[in-house]
Design brief:
Oligomer: heterodimer
Structural class of chain B: mainly alpha
Helix content of chain A: over 70%
Number of strands of chain A: 2
Order of helices and strands of chain A: HHEEHHHHHHHHHHHHHHHHHHHHH
Distance between the termini of chain B: 40 Å
Strand order of the largest sheet of chain A: 1-2
Largest sheet of chain B: 3 strands, mixed
Number of strands of chain B: 7
Radius of gyration of chain A: 39 Å
Distance between the termini of chain A: 137 Å
Number of helices of chain B: 20
Shape of chain A: elongated
Largest sheet of chain A: 2 strands, antiparallel
Chain lengths: ~600, ~525
């Protein structure tokens, strides 16, 4: 039964996408139909949670076979995958609902919901995949549907460029990951996660290759540029894919396989998490673009989760993945309302947002992101901090927390408290309010724990059955740091006349230019070299051979004409000449006959005498 | 008469009948050809039911003596009419029949000299299928050569502006390859004998040739005798002759420059047949004839083969990236993708070989799609320059969608057949459990890099031509850029579904290939030890 619910939540989005694409392109039905399908998928994911919570199931079927090796595909249900599935479906449902209103004036309704459906189904595929090759299949489908969704406004060249670069960046990671998976398959003879689990850790090289795929998908350094550029896509898409789910897939994957990863790889991963967390935090701190602030913040939070997953405990990282998805989706959807109505993304130009339908969600989301007590974010963040032992991961995590506090304070202050001018009546309509309200409720502590101060109150107990997390010394240190830095930030912002920040981050700290010079240009140069080799090196050789052939043919033709034919002609000439001269004897002239007869007679007489 | 002979004979008969028809009624040739390929499809269906995938060895065999010449008392030259299929040729024959069906459908756009066109196309059909079924080396060579002539005329008479150059280049290149192969075949023929007869019967039968105990003692190819000519042994020379001959057809860099010219100049259906089937004959020749006769030599040179493969993959991809013509890009992508076939062969293990065969079928489907799609645009505007278009998917949404899916499938997106092939080939290439290492590990990574290049040129091309605001740099009338019509959808969508089917259920194809691959690997390893 459990398997059936898992299959439903996997198939329904695809089925929805298929049915939606059969509608006429601008059909108003598309959004509602797709929402119904996603809702049904969400329902079955919740039913699955009730059925199989704390009751792991694993079934797998042979997929294909080569030689004696069977490559399997299957469904692996455990607490992590159930939670992730519910999360994906829940956020996807909210985004669908929100999109009905947000996207109602778009021309390509059917394309939009079709693409969302493919994405949601593929994401569920990643969540439940029981073998690495099957996981890779959905991993790439997610890249593909992300490409489609970022490039949804295909007439906007910036969106198109962002889509292409996102796909290409992901492809780099995916192919490294593919070679890692191939190496594991050869090494272990199986790619089934549960069978691999019994065989110890994988080789360091394979682990690093897998990590590359994880880094690309979760927009870690040095891949992070694709995520900020992906903000060119529609805002609901950013909320679903580039905040809550797709980018979290990398973290989810490393949580799922962290027992297989050798310690060296985990160390590298946590180092990368630290750097990314700090860089992303800095980016969020200095950006002016509302969506890019949120994107950089996502990058930073993903780095934070990566630290938690690799240096702390995976359960804590999973918990933060969950809370982050909710508060970040909330922030994006609220930002979407502002952008939708003001057509402005620059926080210097938006002005003051006044509607309580927006201020309360924004405050709740930011509080959860900062990790103020009574929010879900507080519990997950402090759990990660508590799970980190002394050392650089802990201090980096603290630094990331500090940065998070300051950039969140900056965002909130200049959107809500900066009263230079009010924005004209920005307020979500009913269809937008519902998902925003649901997500706002999800930011409260109750969504993860019964008691706001018992970290292992409910959800965490299932995610990590061994440890019990309680507020400890580090919690109070972090809390003190957070509150004091938030207060200091507010005080400082009050004295500023303009929004502090830099506008130099549009090219992602120069990384875009760097990649252009290190990747695109050399590739184009190489391709020119290849073109040149074909046209100036290989073809001339071929032409030369052909000309030599032709010259040889002409030469043999000449030999034929003047030597072989010449000899023949000479022979015939001789024959003709001799024939002609012989013919002289038989011309029928009686005088010549008498002459010859007379000559013969003379010769005969001479012969007799001699 | 067996199914295989029937499969070859039906188009030949059609060609003869069409020769007798008056040229004034063009539709009769279209219909005749369409009926012929439909009959072939039915024969294929009948063969599918008769063929047992798990049974190792040859099936549907037809074996008659063909040529028997007494050289001197006790020594005979012998050739057979021997047709049969196994797990490698069965998928390739199925591919040929399907692609030929599509090619005939797509040929409906041809309007000049229709009679000769379809006659030649039917002869080509017979020759391709003959090459995939013949197990007698002489018979194979006959079919192999017989593909050349129709192709030369099809490119040279119905092609684009530089058709004569392309046709002559194609002919010279491949004819040069044929000569190498012919010399090789002759040396093989005089060095092998049929077993079980007191007479010395020289054989062309590949089933006998691949058994080294049939080598004539003291002949050129007698491994124990080790004749050497110059730096290489006689066996190595003959292996090289055959390999280079087939590598020209494959094509492998640096023997590939006929391909872009021929593919670009050929009319759409002929490009389809060239890329989807004729290239496969080169690979087929390597897997069927070259390796089984010379496994030791192939093993010894597999690092070189791997190197050629990797160069083809990367070099072809780079050239595709530099192409300004959409069709030229596709042609170079073929070079790159056929490199994967060679890499799978070079890795010299079961999984790599399965991957190579899988890639043959997969590339056959995907390149057919790509060439048809290039043809769709060319039919409408007579221009294929990539930079002349942007935002095409706004005017032609269905076309844009199918191009996107096909590009994705070609760059190796999972759920499509190309991914399974790449996966198998890479697994074969990375597999270093066997000693000695036939293909060093860096080649596997280089091939992966080639995949990245593939992603780059496909996605950039799609971006440039189909995304962004709509615009063309050529004069177009209002409804010149119409979306796909019904005939085009009928050709394209089944192929997309086929690629999807093989990507999601690879076992449907692998069950055939596995039997062949495991038999092959047993045989080769028994030979090597």
């Amino acid at each position: 039964m459990a398997i059936r619910f898992a299959l439903f939540s996997f198939m329904l989005p695809f089925a929805g996408a298929l049915i939606v694409t059969m509608l006429p392109q601008n059909s108003r039905m598309a959004g509602r139909l797709a929402t119904v399908f996603t809702g049904a998928a969400m329902l079955s994911s919740i039913l699955l949670a009730f059925q199989s919570w704390m009751n792991p199931t694993h079934i797998h079927w042979p997929w294909f076979q080569t030689g004696i090796t069977q490559w399997s595909a299957g469904i692996l249900i455990n607490t992590g995958s159930i939670l992730m599935n519910v999360l994906v479906m829940f956020i996807s449902f909210c985004v669908h609902l929100y999109s009905i209103s947000y996207m109602k004036n778009e021309r390509m309704q059917v394309s939009y919901y079709g693409r969302l459906g493919i994405f949601t189904g593929s994401m569920t595929g990643i969540v439940f995949s029981s073998s690495l090759i099957q996981l890779f299949l959905f991993w790439e489908l997610v890249s593909f549907s992300s490409f489609l969704l970022i490039g949804y406004w295909s007439e906007n060249p910036r969106a198109v460029r962002a889509a292409t670069s996102a796909f290409f960046m992901n492809q780099i990671g995916d192919l490294l990951m593919l070679s890692g998976i191939v190496l594991i398959g050869i090494d272990k003879g199986t790619l089934d996660l549960s069978e691999l689990g019994g065989q110890g850790t994988i080789a360091v090289s394979a682990g690093l290759l897998l990590l590359a795929g994880i880094m690309a998908k979760s927009a870690q350094i040095p891949f992070l540029t694709w995520l900020t550029n992906a903000m060119e896509g529609p805002t609901p898409v950013s909320a679903l894919i580039h905040a809550a789910t797709m980018v979290a897939a990398g973290i989810y994957f490393i949580i799922r396989i962290h027992l297989l990863m050798p310690a060296e790889v985990l160390l590298v991963a946590s180092l990368i998490g630290c750097i990314t967390g700090l860089v992303g935090g800095l980016g969020a701190l200095i950006s002016y673009d509302l969506k890019r602030i949120l994107a950089f913040s996502t990058i930073s939070q993903l780095g934070f989760m990566l630290i938690g997953a690799t240096a702390g405990t995976s359960g804590a990282a999973m918990l933060h993945l969950y809370t982050h998805a909710i508060f970040k989706a909330l922030l994006f959807l609220s930002a979407g309302v502002i952008i939708h109505q003001t057509h402005e993304q620059d926080i210097r130009k938006i002005g003051q947002v006044k509607s309580p339908f927006l201020t309360i969600p924004l405050l709740l989301g930011a509080a959860s992101m900062i990790g103020l007590p009574l929010t879900a974010g507080f519990i997950s963040k402090e759990t990660i901090i508590e799970s980190l032992h002394n050392g650089w991961p802990l201090w980096s995590a603290q630094a990331v927390t500090l940065l998070t506090t300051v950039y969140s304070a900056r965002l909130i202050y200049f959107l809500l408290a900066n009263s230079s001018w009010p924005t004209p009546a920005v307020k979500p309509d009913a269809l937008m309010t519902v998902p925003i309200a649901i997500l706002s409720a999800g930011c409260l502590w109750i969504s993860v724990s019964w008691s706001p101060f018992d970290f292992s109150g409910a959800l965490m107990k299932s995610l990590d059955e061994i440890h019990h997390f309680q507020p400890g010394m580090m919690t109070y240190v972090t809390l003190g740091l957070t509150i004091s830095s938030a207060a200091a930030a507010f005080l400082w912002f009050r004295r500023q006349s303009t929004v502090p920040g830099f506008s130099g981050e549009e090219d992602n700290f120069g990384l875009d230019v760097l990649y252009r010079n290190l990747g695109y240009r050399p590739l184009m140069g190489l391709s020119m070299v290849a073109y040149w080799t074909d046209h100036r090196l290989i073809n001339p050789v071929i032409h030369f051979i052909a000309y030599v052939q032709v010259a040889w043919a002409l030469f043999t033709g000449w030999i034929d004409k003047f030597v072989v034919d010449g000899i023949i002609t000479a022979i015939t000439e001789i024959i003709i000449v001799s024939g002609d001269s012989l013919r002289l004897f038989t011309r029928g002239k009686i005088q010549s006959y008498i002459l010859w007869a007379f000559l013969m007679l003379v010769i005969f007489i001479i012969w007799i005498i001699a | 008469m067996g199914l295989l002979s029937l499969l070859i004979l039906v188009p030949v008969v059609t060609a003869i009948i069409m020769l007798a028809l008056p040229a004034s009624r063009p539709n009769s040739f279209r219909m005749f050809s369409l009926v012929t390929v439909s009959i072939q499809l039915m024969i294929l269906g009948a063969g599918w039911f008769r063929y047992i995938p798990d049974k190792p060895g040859m099936q549907l065999t037809e074996h008659y003596p063909w040529i028997d010449v007494v050289l001197r008392p006790g020594e005979r030259v012998h050739a057979d009419y021997l047709l049969a299929v196994d797990g490698m040729s069965a998928p390739l024959i199925a591919l040929s029949v399907v692609v030929m069906f599509i090619a005939v459908l797509s040929s409906f756009k041809i309007t000049n000299k229709i009679k000769s066109y379809f006659v030649l196309l039917m002869l080509l059909d017979a020759a391709v299928i003959g090459a995939f079924t013949a197990l007698d080396l002489l018979l194979f060579f006959l079919f192999f050569e017989f593909m050349l002539l129709p192709l030369y005329f099809l490119v040279g008479m119905w092609g684009g502006s530089r058709r004569e150059y392309a046709a002559v280049k194609f002919f010279l290149y491949t004819f040069f390859g044929s000569i190498l192969i012919l010399v090789g075949i002759i040396i093989i023929h005089i060095s092998f004998r049929s077993p079980g007869s007191a007479d010395l019967i020289h054989t062309f039968n590949i089933l006998e040739l691949q058994n080294k105990s049939n080598t004539i003692v003291d002949s050129f190819l007698d491994g124990g005798r080790a004749y050497s000519w110059g730096p290489l042994t006689a066996r190595m020379w003959v292996f090289t002759l055959l390999f280079v001959g087939f590598a020209i057809k494959l094509p492998s860099v640096p023997f590939h420059t006929w391909l872009p010219d021929a593919h670009v100049e050929a009319p759409t259906p002929v490009s389809v047949v060239l890329a989807a089937l004729v290239l496969k004959v080169g690979a087929y020749g390597i897997i069927r004839f070259t390796l089984p006769i010379f496994p030791g030599e192939a093993a010894a040179s597999s690092t070189v083969l791997g190197l050629l493969a990797v160069i083809s993959i990367i070099y072809g991809a780079l050239n595709a990236m530099a192409s300004k013509d959409f069709k030229r890009l596709i042609a170079y992508s073929s070079v790159s993708h056929m490199g994967f076939v060679l890499l799978g062969v070079a890795s010299f293990n079961e999984i790599g070989l399965s991957g190579a065969v899988f890639q043959l079928v997969s590339h056959g489907i995907l390149t057919t799609l790509l060439f048809l799609l290039a043809g769709v645009l060319y039919d409408r505007t007579l221009d294929r320059t990539i930079s002349n278009y942007s935002g095409l998917s706004i005017k032609m949404p269905k076309y844009g969608a199918i191009v996107l899916v096909t590009c994705m499938a070609s760059l190796g997106l999972p759920a499509f057949s190309g991914f399974i092939a790449e996966w198998l080939v890479l697994t074969g290439a990375f597999d270093q459990t066997r000693l000695p290492d036939y293909v060093p590990q860096w080649m596997g990574f280089a091939a992966t890099f080639g995949l990245l290049l593939g992603a780059a040129y496909f996605i950039w091309t799609y971006q440039r031509m189909f995304l962004g605001p709509f615009g063309t740099k050529i004069l177009t009338t209002k409804d010149q850029l119409s979306d796909l019509d019904r005939r085009e959808i009928l050709m394209l969508v089944p192929l997309v579904l086929l690629a999807l089917l093989l990507g999601i259920f690879p076992q449907t194809l692998l069950q055939y290939i596995n039997t062949f691959a495991s038999a092959w690997s047993n045989q080769v390893s028994s030979y090597l030890n």
